[in-house]
Structure formats: structure tokens, C-alpha cells
Protein 1
Amino acid sequence: MSGWTAAEMPSLEGETVVVTGANSGLGFEGTEAFARRGASVVMACRSLERGREAAAEIRQSVGDADLDVRECDLADLENIAAFADGLEEAYDGVDILCNNAGVMAIPRQETADGFEMQLGVNHLGHFALTGYLLPALRASEGESRIVTQSSGLHEQGEMDFDDLQSERGYDKWDAYGQSKLANLLFAYELERRLDERGISDLLSVACHPGYADTELQFRGPRESGSSLRMAGMQVANAVLAQSAEQGAWPMLYAATADTAIGGEYVGPGGLMDMRGSPEFQQSSAASRDEADAERLWDVSEELTGVPYDFEAL
């Protein structure tokens, strides 16, 4: 995949792609790239207003973009279920699901269902959404893919199953690292469970964007009211970050490239894995802990109330 860019994406005519967090950052860039290749893109956004504004902006550069903006609040299980129901009513199948949306290093908050916000949005919301959409993914013709966005900061994450919701103590970066580690444990375990059942036309691939200049870095400082941290992020993004467009390349590769492999981890291959063209990479040993992956899976099904019925696929 040396030197791969979004320019090498194949035609996606006739395919349906779902992107969470599609109105900004990596999700926006991914949505535009998918639309440019002819896909019908469902923009799953927490804010319909911001989603529609983003869709209008994309149509300025991709005049025939087929975009469907729908509300999907990953911090609300009832809302996720309603989104999935609406999608299945409107579409015959889903070819690509990009579990992209996320929050990073924010003050402690809880989702509508009482989950710590970073774990709730970054992992549990996507776990529920993927479970609901499995039948639609299987209903698509040919191969379909689930792409889960993690982060290099998963390497600092630890699964604290005794205090998963950070109720006894909260550190915003520890919680973020745990949520990104959970993304990888989920992505790899999903691929194993698909393989065990001989489901070879549905792939689960993980990725990370490196250091990309997006709005994600600024939500934490903004919600903390820290002008110093805001200024620091602005400087770091200007000096170190690659563009959001380039940051989306690993996700786009994982979603569309013929050489992408289920159960693999894709990220930028340049300076300190922070920028450059995508390549297969090694994630942390903790992310490959199958016992933790099984435990997280069981806990996630219990917390979300979304069982994965593979036998019905």
C-alpha cells in the first residue's frame, strides 16, 4: 500500500456507506471522498443542523453527491436504535459502516444511559450501532466492511473493569485511552467471531488517523474553559498535524482497498505513525488480549442491551 492516497479509491457506485460523526473532521473528509466515488453516504450526526450544513458544503465540491443526513446521537441508546430502524426501512443493505465519531479528553460527563461519556460514545455507542446494523451489512451484495476508528493513544489505555465508568476516579486522558483501547478490543473480537462462524464476506478492520488537524482536539479545552490548553492545541496542530483530509486516509483504505484485511490495524506510516500514507501496523499487546476482549464484549452486550445474533445472519 506504499504511497496510497484517497485518489486510489475504487468506484463506489451503487454502494451505501454509513459514517458516524460525518459533519466534521475525519468524518467530513471521509464522507466527501466516498461521495466523490459515487457512494450513497448516510451522514450519521448528533446535530441535524450541523449535518445539513456539512452536506451543503460537500455538494459545493461534489455537485452530484448522494447524501442522507440522519440524526444519530451515540450518547443515547434509544436514539441509536431509532437511527438503525430508520436506516433499515430506507435501505436494502449497508456496504460500509465507519465507526468514526468520538470525543476526546473532556471533563467527566455521562450519556443519557449513565455511561461515562468517552467510553459511552467512543465504544458503547458504536458497539450498539454495529449490532443493530449487522443484518443490513449482511444483506448487501458482495463484501461489506466495518471500520472502527481508534487512536495511537490506545497504547496508554488500560481496561479498568472494576471501575469501567470512572466513577471512583476520573482522568480525562486515562478515560480516553481506555475508550480507544476498547475500540480495538471490539474490532478484533468482532473479526474473530465472524471468522469462527465462517462469515468471510464481512470484514472488521481497525484504523487510526495519526495526528490530524480536526475539531476533536479542541472540545476538551473548550468545555474545560482552558484558554491555555486551547492555544497549545492550536500551536501543536499547526506545527505537527497533517490535514484532516490525510488523516482520513487510513479509514478510507480500510473501507475500500482490495488489499485491506479483516482483523488488521491501519495507520499513517510516516513520522512516529502520526502522518503519511496508510500501512498495516502493530497495536499494543493489551489490544490483542483475547480474554479482555471477551470480557468487554460480554459487558458491552449487558450494558447496551444489544446482543449480537450471529446465527441469524
Note: The first strand starts at residue 16 and ends at 20.
Protein 2
Amino acid sequence: MDTTISLARSTAGGAAATKVPLHRIADDKTMLRTAAELTRDLIAPRAGVYWADLIASVVIGYGALAVAVTAGSTALAIAAGVVSMLALYRALSFIHEISHMKHAALPRFRGGWNALVGVPMLTPSFMYEGVHNLHHAKTRYGTVEDPEYLPLALMKPWTLPVFILVSALAPLGLLIRFAILSPLSLVIPGFRRVVVERYSALAINPQFRRRMPEGEAARMWNRVETAASIWAIAIVTMVATGTIPLRGFLIAMAIGSGVAVVNQVRTLVAHLWENDGEAMTVTAQYLDSVNVPPPALLPALWAPVGLRYHALHHLLPGVPYHNLGEAHRRVTAALEPGSPYHKASYKGLPGLVDKIVRSTMTVRR
């Protein structure tokens, strides 16, 4: 595979664009300094916003799920299912915030989220904590050590639909993970390490292996995993005995698949995926990432909880989701039109999907 794919950057005089490989893009110190200085007062999370948003998403999500399962009309079941999927997707997206937050700043939020979302949806917070932070490590981003990176734009076109479609199996995979693998890992020597290393991370890099947890992290992991395992076994038992009707179970699984697919589509366009494995500067990482700011409206649904500002998040990972919009407005107004900051903003999902599809079709092999 030819790995000379690069970002096009125009010269100052407006001449023909030159090609600069991602790993050779130097840091733009003006952009980095401006972004940091203008957002120092936006670091503190607002507990009221977090809790209100989470609880509203959970109430709507589970309420709509109940309607979908019990509806006598197919049309009503479908409509309620879509509402449930979008609301639960938003609720689940808080796992990203949890992986970044200082828990002392939002006491009990992680525990509340696990009780309301992580355990019921079989996606506890430990599946992302200790994993996502590696994606933000300057020397790991875009390399084989990044759990959340694949050079999708440099791969073959058929990999994109496979990347999306395989995510539909996530609810089944999670059910197997917690109802079967968790109990087995307690009785089969050596199997516990396999489960932790390979089946305990929300990662897309198949080469990634996570470390065994230690100390308080291990104790928290064990408590939450035990709860998720008991819940998963209870689900299987209730479906097998008819306590949960098969129709209702399949509807819930379909909604879970919808959540996973929408999230995978968002993941597909969260980056340009053009890095070939070399370490990159922060500016290069930013340019390989994506903002979809207003006036676009739909990103609020498919990239919720601040994920529409994914590139900005790579510059300022400590800014809570509810302040990213203000941060973007400040930095946008302060930096001149030629700043790299403006090059990471895109209009919407269709154009981003088209961009990566075209990249896979034009890469030289």
C-alpha cells in the first residue's frame, strides 16, 4: 500500500495546493496557544447540566422503549423505537465524558451513569476508561498503539460497509461477553486475562490489548462487571422462560443495534483516518479530526454530547461537552481565516461520508 496520502494545504499566495503528509505537519503554536488561553474559564463541568441531560435522556429512552415493546401498531412501534434509539444513544454517549472527567468534580456521576445506562445497556464505564485516554496520547494517536484508530481512508472500499454493518452485532456480542465470558473467566485458568485484554474495551483497532486493572480501578471494575453479568444472565433466563416475550426482546435488541450503528457511522466521520501509522503533532491530529458546528442541525442527533466538536475536543480534551460550543465560537472569532483551525470544520454527514469513500477509491496501492 502506498502511504503517501496527505492533507492538501494551500500556500499563502493562493497558488496550487501542496501535499504535506500528516506526520510532517508542524504544530501551529498560535492556534494551540489561542485555544488554551481563550477557554481557561470553560473547564469546570456543571453538575446540573450533566444530571438533567442524562436523566432526561434515560427517561425518554426507556419510556419510548416501553412503548415500542408494547405498541399494538407497527408504525407506533417503529416511531417509538427510533425515539428510544436516539435518546439512549445520547445517554450512552456520556461514557465519553466519564472517560475524561475528574470524578471529584462530579461526585457519584459515574456510579449513577453505570446504574442507569452502563449496566442496563451492558456497556459499563470501564469499557472506555483507561482506553480512550490512550487515543489522546500525543505519541499514540494514529499509530498501531491507538485503540481507536484505523487508517480507514487508506484501506479498500469494502472495509467501510463491513466497518458499519459489523456494529449491528454489538448487542449480541455484549450479551455473550457478560452472560457467558464473565462467568467462564472466573473458573477457567488464564481465561480472565484473555477476556480483559481482548473483550473489555470499546476499541476498533484489532491489535489493541488492554492491561489488567489494578488497585481501586480493579475493585470498581469487578463491582460493575458483576452487576452487568448478573443482569445479562437475568435477561437470558427471562427470555428463555418466557418472562420477557421474545418479540419484546428482539425489539430491544434492534434498538440496541440501532444505537451501535449510529455510533459507528459517527465514528466513521469523527476523523479523516488518513494517518499511516506515524506519530503526529497535536495540530496534525486536529486536522485529521472533524468538527460539524452549527448551522447544521442533525449533528445534534448523530454526534450528541459535544461529539460534533470532535476536532476541538482533541485540542481541548478537558473542556466539558456543554462548553464546547462557546469554546468553538471564541476560537473561531479570534483566529484569522488562514489558521488551520478553520480547516477541520465540515458541513455535515453526507459530505464526510463521500470524502472517506472517495479516499478509499483513489488511494494508490
Note: The longest helix spans residues 215-240.
